[in-house]
Each structure stands twice: as structure tokens, then as C-alpha cells.
Amino acid sequence: MNDVIHPRSPRETMSGWLYLPRFLDKVRLSLAGRLHSDYQQNFAKRGFDAQWLTAAGLEAEAFIEVVRHTITDGQVADWVRSHVRRPAEQLAFNQWILAYGSEGDPELGARLALRKEQSGLAHRNDITTFVDYIDADEGRQPL
């Protein structure tokens, strides 16, 4: 049995921000002691988590505390709409995350190819970004 609880797709949006629902899921799983080890290395300090926090102008600990004191997605969405007003950064982040891995950076392309190979997805030529990879790896895109 697979004990991994996958957070939502990085393509999902909340308060206009791509990735926010996924990060919210990861925070809630972490607070509950259920964040799978596959996600813990980058949680709130590296990768897309850190990029979202930077774009939103937030510190990890502060956002985690917001989530700790809310129950619903709507409460978090309301808080973000009230406290994170960075339209230029939001637009740039949303564009960046959807393109990450397809920008022609050879090192990044090699890392994506390696991840695909490690996950048995090397044959998937339709996976051209890390968002594509995450969705396929977590079973949201048909193999």
C-alpha cells in the first residue's frame, strides 16, 4: 500500500497564485506529522516552496503559523488576499513555475531527464516542465 498523501497539483490556484494550494497541503500535512519523506527535504526552504514564499514576500514560519490557525482553504485564501498584494511578483511566479524546466537551460533539462528516468517516465516526451513531471509522477497525468 502506498502511504504517500500527494498534495494538490502545482497547477491549482488560490487567490490568483499557482502552487499555493499545493504548498498549503504540504504545510497541513507537515503540521499533522504526515508529510511524506519525499517532500520533507525541500519543505518550506527550497524548491517551489521557497520560490513561492519569496514571490509572496513571506517568511516560511509566518505562513506556517497562518495555516496552523486556520481550518479551511477559504480562510487561507482570504488571508492571502488581504496580506499578499504583489501583482507583479504573482504574475512572474505563475509564468515561471509553468515554464520551469523548458527554458533551454541544459543543466535543468538534464535534471528533468534524470527525474523522469528515475520515475520510469523517460518515454514521456509530453513531460517538458517540472510541473508536468510532478503531475505525472503523482499520477495526475495518464501514463
List keywords for this structure.
143 residues, mainly alpha, 2 domains, two-stranded antiparallel ribbon, 2 strands, globular
Task: Describe this protein's structure.
The chain is mostly helical and 143 residues long. It folds into 2 domains: 99 residues, no CATH class; 40 residues. The protein is 56% helix and 3% strand. It has a two-stranded antiparallel ribbon. A hairpin with a 2-residue loop joins strand 1 and strand 2.
Would you spell out the secondary-structure blueprint of this structure?
Elements: E1 13-14, E2 17-18, H1 20-31, H2 37-40, H3 47-56, H4 60-68, H5 73-83, H6 87-99, H7 106-118, H8 130-137
Antiparallel strand pairs: 1-2
Helix pairs in contact: 3-6
Question: Can you summarize this structure?
Answer:
This protein has helices at residues 20-31, 37-40, 47-56, 60-68, 73-83, 87-99, 106-118, 130-137, and strands at 13-14, 17-18. The protein has 143 residues and is mainly α.
CA gyration radius, whole angstroms: 15 Å
**Residues in helix, %:** 55-70%
- According to DSSP, the number of beta strands is 2
| Assembly state of the chains shown | single chain
N→C terminal distance = 20 Å
Q: Mean of residue pLDDT?
A: 95
Low-confidence stretches: none
Number of helices: 8
Proportion of beta-strand residues: under 5%
Report the biggest beta sheet as strand number plus sense, adding barrel if it closes: 2 strands, antiparallel
The strands making up the biggest β-sheet line up spatially as 1-2
| Integer tally of domains | 2
Label the overall shape: globular
Order of helices and strands: EEHHHHHHHH
Q: What is the SS-derived class?
A: mainly alpha
